[in-house]
Amino acid sequence: MSAPAHTRSPVDESDAVAGRLLAALDRALPYVGPALAAVLGLAGLGRRALVVDEASLLSAAQASFSDVVEHAISNDPARAGYVAVLQPIASAGSSEVWLRLPSVLAGVVAAIAAYRLGRRLAGRHAGAAASIVLATSVGVVSLSRTVGPLALALAAMLVSSALFARAVDRGNAFWWAVYVLSAIALPLTHPIAVSALAAQLVAAGVAWRELDLRLAVPALGIAVVECALLLTAAAVDRAEAPDGAGPLELDDVGAGIGRALGWSPVVAVLAVWGVISLHRRSPERGRWKAVLVAGLVVMPIVFVLAAGVVLPVFPRTALTVAAGGLALGAGVGLFAIADSGVRLATGAALAVVAVAALGTAAVRDQPENWRAAARLVEMRAGENDTVVVLPERARTAFSYYAPGLRLSRVGRGEAVFVVVAGDAKHATRSGRRVVAAPRYALLSQEHAGDDLVVQRWVRP
C-alpha cells in the first residue's frame, strides 16, 4: 500500500530543515560582525598593561567634567571629545577593563555602521561581509582594546558615511540634518576622522546630479566650516605636542597601512576588486558609491602624509582607521565574485589569515609592561631609595601601577631605581643623566618588555 499523498518523505523533511536553517542564518547575518567585534574586543581586555598614552589620557580625565573639558579644549583640542567621554567612565572606576570598554563599544558600533553602509552600497550580503572583515581585523581589534580615541574615530567615520549615503539616496532635509550633526562630530573624536568628510565631499562632487543642491550644499558647507575650524585648532596644538612623535618615515606609513589591512593581502586584493566591480555595475548616477569606498581608504593616507610634512604624527596607529574603507571594499569584492566555489575559497582564505594574525598578536609580548616594571621596583625599593621614570611623560603609567611610590626627577638616597622607556640600547646613557655617576654604579638592569628597562644604581 502506498503512503498517503499528504505524507512528507524523509527527503522533503530534511530539505525543509535545511531551508529553515539557511533562513535563520540569513536573518542572523547583520549581527555576526557586531557580535564578533564584541567578543574579540572583550577577550583578554585586561591582560595587557596600560601604556603611556593610555595612562596620560586617564590622568587628563581625572577632574570634574567642566575642568577636564576646559583643560582639553585649551591644551589638547585634538583629544577633547574623547577625554569628555572618558571623564565619567574614569570617575566610576579605573581598572584596565573598565577604561577600555568605550573602545570596545566603539568597535561594535563601527561593525554595525559597516553593515548598514555596505548594505546600502551593494546589498546585505556585501554589508555583512564588510562588517565581519572589519570586526576580525587585527588592527581594529587592537584599537578596540586600547584606551584612546581612534576606535571612536573609526566608528564616527563609518556612521557619518552611512548617514551621507542615506541622505544622498533619500534626499530630504531630515537626513541631511542628521548627517551634518555626524560630520561636525568627526574632529571631536580625532583629527584623522575628518578624512571621511573629504571622501564624502569627493563622492558628492561625483553625485551632484543626484543631489538636491538646495539641501546638500548648505549641509556640506556647514560641515566643512566646522571641521576646518576644529582641525586648525588641533593642528596648531599638535605642532608643540611633547609626546615623542618624530618626523614622518615611510616604514611607519607602511606599518600603518599593514595594520589597516589586518596584515592580510587577501583584504587588499578584494578591496581593489570591490571598488572596481562597484564602479562597473553602478549606473552613471551611482558611481559615487565606488568613490566613497575608495575615499575612505585613500583620504586617511593623504591626510597623514600631508600632516606629516609639518607636524609630528603617529602613522602606525592613525592609519588604522583606513580599515573601514578596506573592509567595505573587501565585502563588496567578495560577493562580486561570480563563481561560488572561488567565492567560498576566498572567504576561507580571509578567515585563515585573520585567525593567524589575531593569534600572532595574542602571543606577542608587550614592548612596555608597566605593570611588571612597577612590581619589580616595589619588591626591591627601600625607604631611603628613590625612583626616577624616564621620559617625564611616562610617569603616569608607572604611578598607575605603583601609586604608593614617590617619584623623583634626580637620583638620591641609598639606591636609585631608574625606569627607562624607549630604545633599550640607550637605557644606560639615559640613566646616567639622572644619577651622579661617580657616586652611583649600575648594579642591575632588568627588562619589563623589549622597550622598558628597570635599572638599580647603588653607591659603590
What's this model, at a glance?
It is built from 21 helices and 4 strands. The chain has 460 residues and is mainly α. Strands 1-2-4-3 form a 4-stranded mixed sheet.
Tell me the distance between the termini.
Answer: 105 Å
Helix content: 55-70%
Q: Write down the domain tally.
A: 2
Percentage beta strand: 5-15%
Topology:
Layout: H1 10-42, H2 52-60, H3 65-75, H4 80-92, H5 96-122, H6 124-135, H7 138-144, H8 150-170, H9 173-184, H10 186-189, H11 194-206, H12 213-238, H13 250-261, H14 265-281, H15 288-310, H16 315-318, H17 323-335, H18 340-363, H19 370-380, E1 386-390, H20 395-401, E2 415-421, H21 427-432, E3 441-447, E4 452-458
Parallel strand pairs: 1-2
Antiparallel strand pairs: 2-4, 3-4
